[in-house]
Amino acid sequence: MDPLDEKFMRRALELARDAEAAGEVPVGAVIVRDGEIVAEGFNRPISTHDPTAHAEMVALRAAAARSDSYRLLGTTLYVTLEPCAMCAGAMVHARVQRLVYAASDPRAGAAGSIFNVVQSPALNHRLEVTAGVLAEDCGATLRNFFVARRG
User: Fold this and answer.
1) Sheet holding 36-42, edge to edge
2) Per residue in 122-146, pLDDT tens?
3) Catalytic residues
4) pTM as predicted
5) In 22-134, which ranges are continuous DSSP H helix?
6) Helix (H) or strand (E) holding 140
7) DSSP string, 5-32
8) Is 107 helix (H, G, I), strand (E, B) or coil?
């Protein structure tokens, strides 16, 4: 495992725990360019009443605002759970270079599990993908959250 991938995924996991503390599904995301974090986000759809406020979308919006451009060339997005189709599509439109995710999502994953939006030859941009970075830690955080929620 690449030490930088692990470092940034650990930060995404911290953000996932912040989401959990706020009563949200524990997913965190970090966007990195040239070895530096340019934006972060965690799930906020419940608290914001916004179905698009997934961790990746929050981070993408913050990175675009900071960059003064919706094109996020040369960036890597780290996220604790495989992105859904909405988030994967947004990454393609933003021209994110690379996606690194931890836990696969066999119900809604759009980076290879159910769909592969981020590498679709039908689209005009494809992302490099690295899966499974800290998958056990991130997956356990999600499992524990849902076990506790279901009581």
Assistant:
1) 36-42, 28-33, 75-81, 98-103, 128-131
2) 999 999 999 999 999 999 999 999 9
3) 56
4) 0.97
5) 45-48, 55-67, 85-94
6) helix 135-150
7) HHHHHHHHHHHHHHHHHTTS---EEEEE
8) coil
